[in-house]
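Researcher: Please predict.
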Amino acid sequence: IHSEDVYDNATFADAFPNQTYTVVTCEGKPVDLVPNGSNKPVTFDTRLDYVRKAVQYRVAECDAQIDAIRRGIGAIVPTYLLALFTGSEIEYLICGSADVDVKLLKETCQYDGASPSHPP
């Protein structure tokens, strides 16, 4: 849909039929952006308000989860130090390398009740 094709309430309704003040969460569930939003139609005149509310909701949608991660990492590393690292560096420090040296693993692994030729 090109913006020049949508220029009033009638063309908006044709382009976005049944659009209400709801968004679909990252979990796939519909959420009202305003009280009774599923029954409030978005019109050409209210489209910018709808977009503002939808963006505001989606930007803040994962705040609780991000805060929990921040608290968890902060229990191990002072959070002010995190600003010294990029996201990739923090991932490496927390998760380690994605590359596994299988040869080194075999050479240094200690077996208890099994062996490389006789797994449990």
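Model: Helices lie at 9-15, 47-60, 63-74, 87-95, 102-108.
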